[in-house]
Automatic annotation (TrEMBL):
<dbReference type="InterPro" id="IPR036514">
    <property type="entry name" value="SGNH_hydro_sf"/>
</dbReference>
<protein>
    <recommendedName>
        <fullName>SGNH hydrolase-type esterase domain-containing protein</fullName>
    </recommendedName>
</protein>
Length: 526
């Protein structure tokens, strides 16, 4: 399904990771110093699946495939130097993972097999004994959640004075759309947020592929393996000096003859649910991360480095850069392990047809009741309705202007799992502005969370936001967040369109799937 996209070589120069040898990691043509040879210890001897994966060939991948999939961008080497110095001083390192269901454990019953846990296992077997530097991983991943949500709500999941030293962003399949550049704006806003953290973290992109569920893997809906790399993420990586670890390059190698990518699926790479990567895929991603750090960590040597300012935005307008957002989010990536720090307080003032789903309840956990073999820790609470004619009104306070707060704000609402059938719509308005409401007339793919912006010039003081469902016999949704951001945000054109019920990666896909959705599911407004 969808158009065929010829591949054209990127005219920008791209740095590939130097090749490995048995004597060490080569750094710009020079072997690693002998005192750092221990960095090259392989993970296969102590990985949990060591009886299955004893060597790299057991992962159905070659060393050169791993090397080519690591797109080195080191315009900001001070971040790597800062991390390396911290490691060699024996200080603890904290890593957070910001991702979707693949990182949250979708399809994997044993979460110790997830790529970030496999990397952590290598670190604490190799780096910790030699340096005393332990690695702690906090998985902030949320199934069906993308950069728009994390941009405004990340602070709710980070404890004060405990910012990360390493950030992995795995959202290349969750940020979909049909316009190059504008579709990548939420990713850029999120990237700038984490680059701006006081801990000066090293940031890496992890790029996966969403094949989309079909009757079998021979009928996948994304045969050419498109993701956000096609819509601006590669450019973001280059612009901000972020290394991109592209599992897509492993699963979907580029045909040198016709310049087209095609999925080459080997056993263990794609989960049997046809939606997530499987245990071998996770091991391949973990090995990419390990190889990257085996390349970077031995470069230490500098006691100090010059921290540079973050570059001007590439796709997003400077007026909408998100620095101090506020969020009420009935969402927890670490259910049962930690609580959420709400940065915005909301109150339910009136309600008809909505029922509260407590975030602490077991029913809020992802996959509850659908997969007894999967114990996910990402959870989604809030207020849920499953019928038309429902409405709910929240109140909240917009803070007065100060050094951290602007004079005006944009206001958005987070809706998850919006399912609509026949002629139906959701209306949302701020305060008494029912005549200026935002109408949602499309649906959403499965259990996805999306931010819908309601107003873009909101002054300080108390306000209300109201949501009403109209028309049709069946309409279900979960309201699980309200966000405040800088003034002027009205949404992101081309990002996660509601007029199609499948992911789109180009304007051609969008127009085609919009016609199909309109034919099969009634009339949708553009």
């Amino acid at each position: 399904m969808g158009a065929i996209y010829p591949y054209s070589a990127d005219p920008r120069k791209e740095t590939t990771m130097p090749a490995r040898t048995t004597r060490g990691v080569f750094l710009n043509g020079t072997p690693a110093l002998p005192q750092f040879a221990w960095f090259n210890q392989e993970p296969f001897a102590f990985w949990r699946d060591k009886t299955v994966y004893r060597r790299i060939s057991d992962l159905s991948v070659r060393e050169e495939d791993i090397t080519k999939a690591i797109h080195m961008n080191e315009k900001d080497p001070c971040r790597a130097t800062t991390l390396t110095n911290k490691v060699l001083r024996g200080e603890p390192v904290k890593m957070i993972v910001i991702g979707g269901s693949n990182s949250a454990g979708g399809g994997i019953s044993d979460h110790r097999q997830l790529f970030h846990q496999l990397f952590s296992e290598w670190w604490n077997h190799v780096i910790l004994p030699r340096t005393g530097s332990s690695l702690t991983v906090e998985n902030l991943s949320l199934g069906g959640t993308a950069s728009d949500f994390f941009t405004f709500c990340l602070q709710n999941f980070l404890w004060n004075n405990d910012d990360p030293n390493i950030v992995l962003i795995e959202l290349s399949v969750n940020d979909y759309g049909y316009l190059n550049g504008t579709t990548a704006q939420p990713m850029e806003l999120l990237t700038r947020r984490v680059l701006s953290l006081s801990s000066f973290p090293l940031v890496l992109y992890v790029s996966l592929v969403d094949l989309l569920k079909g009757a079998s893997l021979s009928s996948i809906k994304n045969p050419h393996c498109h993701n956000l790399e096609d819509l601006g993420q590669r450019e973001l990586a280059t612009h901000y000096g972020i290394t991109l670890l592209s599992w897509r390059d492993i699963l979907c190698p580029l045909n040198p003859v016709n310049g087209i990518r095609k999925a080459y699926i080997r056993p263990g790479m794609v989960n049997r649910d046809h939606l997530h990567i499987d245990v071998k895929g996770h091991a391949q991603v973990a090995l990419m991360i390990i190889r990257y750090f085996q390349n970077v960590l031995p470069r230490a040597g500098q006691q100090h480095c010059l921290k540079t300012e973050i570059k001007r935005p590439l796709f997003a307008d400077t007026s909408i850069l998100v620095t101090n957002p506020l969020s009420w989010a009935s969402t927890n990536p670490r259910w049962g392990k930690s609580t959420v720090q709400q940065s915005l307080k909301v109150r339910v003032e009136s309600n008809q047809g909505f029922k509260e789903l407590p975030l602490h309840s077991v029913e809020a956990k992802a996959g509850y009741g659908s997969n007894p073999f999967q114990d996910r820790t990402d959870a989604f609470g809030g207020w849920v309705s499953a019928r038309q004619g429902s409405f709910i009104e929240y109140s909240f306070d917009v803070p007065e202007r100060n050094i951290y707060a602007p004079s005006k704000w944009s206001v958005g609402i987070a809706i998850r799992g919006l399912e609509q059938h026949e002629r139906r719509e959701v209306k949302i308005w701020l305060d008494k502005g029912k005549g200026d409401e935002v109408a949602i007339t499309g649906g959403a793919r499965g259990q996805e969370t999306r931010i819908y912006f309601v107003a873009s010039e909101v002054s300080p003081g108390q306000h209300t936001i109201t949501l009403e469902t109209k028309g049709g016999k069946r309409i279900s949704l979960l309201i699980n967040g309200i966000v405040l951001g800088p003034a002027g945000i009205k949404g992101f054109k081309g990002y996660k369109p509601t007029e199609t019920l499948d992911k789109v990666w180009s304007l051609e896909d969008y127009e085609k799937l919009k016609r199909i959705s309109k034919k099969n599911a009634g009339s949708f407004a553009v």
